[in-house]
Design a protein that fits this description.
Elements (H helix, E strand, L loop, with lengths): L2 H15 L3 H8 L3 H8 L7 H11 L3 H6 L17 H25 L2 E15 L6 E12 L4
Antiparallel strand pairs: 1-2
Length: about 150
């Protein structure tokens, strides 16, 4: 058994029981975005959180322990994603990445946006021409230090 096996069990149970990520997040008292990342194997749950997730998805004690192991983050099955939705994010970074970088540096200076001290909010935005996806990414600015 490994973390991927637990992730597959969570996904299988989610589908078979019609569980919504937002409902899982409410039981954990966390955002749906972070909760989903955790359930998909990209974040580490503490023991109390793993117990709640375990109850929701019918996980054994051993499987709950796997939820507490620090995962290998950022793992996609291919260098360039082939899933259309994930590929569009890749496309956004390919097309607008240099613009985002330039504007962050102009506003903040030489540094990066943290993906550790970070939050994300995904919402549906009603629009008569077709609903829109509204994504807000908020990361702490970390300046490069001189030494």
């Amino acid at each position: 058994m490994n973390r991927n096996d637990v992730t597959e069990k969570i996904i299988t149970t989610k589908v078979s029981k019609g569980i919504k990520w937002e409902d899982v997040a409410k039981k954990l008292g966390l955002s749906k975005e972070w909760t989903t990342a955790g359930c998909l194997g990209q974040m580490t749950f503490d023991a109390a959180q793993a117990k709640i997730v375990g109850k929701i998805f019918g996980l054994t004690l051993e499987e709950q322990k796997w939820l507490q192991v620090v995962p290998y983050k950022g793992s996609l099955p291919s260098a360039v994603p082939t899933d259309p939705l994930i590929y569009r994010w890749y496309e956004v970074v390919s097309v607008y990445g240099t613009t985002i970088k330039e504007l962050i540096h102009e506003e903040f200076g030489d540094g990066i946006m943290s993906a550790i001290d970070f939050s994300m909010d995904i919402r549906r935005e009603k629009d008569p021409k077709g609903d829109r996806v509204n994504v807000v990414l908020s990361g702490k600015f970390l300046p490069y230090k001189q030494y």
